[in-house]
Write a structure and sequence with these properties.
Blueprint: H1 3-26, E1 40-47, E2 53-64, E3 67-68, E4 73-78, E5 82-89, E6 93-97, E7 102-106, E8 111-117, E9 122-128, E10 133-141
Parallel strand pairs: 2-5, 4-10
Antiparallel strand pairs: 1-2, 2-3, 5-8, 6-7, 6-9, 9-10
Length: 142
């Protein structure tokens, strides 16, 4: 192996190491705190107009002991988009999404999914109806 070949191989190895570090360094976080603040996400099927399905991240709000795990969640969407999220709970509750007038019962250990179209910009809370405990909000942006 000639000296030039060794130098070329060393330069290629260094380039691969730098690219790997850049990829690892940029894949660790999401600086967009408006989409779901401290919310867990689940993958759920979404239709693509009848041609098949794609996977999309749906925020999951978990309620334990009557409070949202990780604090009050914010889900941001553009006006006209679908508002999709799931609430999991360790107890029976009625979860009310204000402004959309949608209330659903979740059983202990179960979950309930919301899928409604946004029609007006604003901030709309969702809460445990019987206690008035706010567990999240939907931020509909213009």
């Amino acid at each position: 192996m000639t000296r030039n070949t060794r130098i070329a191989l060393l330069a290629a190895a260094a380039l691969v190491a730098v690219v790997a570090l850049v990829i690892i360094g940029t894949s660790g976080g999401d600086d967009n705190k408006d989409s779901t603040t401290a919310a867990q996400t689940a993958t759920a099927p979404a239709t693509t107009g009848g041609t098949g399905t794609t996977k999309t991240a749906v925020p999951v709000v978990t309620v334990k002991n009557g409070k949202p795990v990780g604090g009050v969640q914010t889900i941001a969407v553009k006006n006209g988009d679908q508002v999709r999220f799931v609430v999991k709970s360790d107890a029976d509750h009625e979860i009310h999404l204000h402004g959309f007038d949608v209330a659903k019962d979740v059983k202990a250990g179960g979950q309930v999914a919301y899928d409604v179209k946004s029609t007006a910009p604003g901030i709309y809370e969702f809460e445990i109806e019987e206690t008035g405990t706010k567990i999240g909000q939907v931020k509909v942006e213009p």
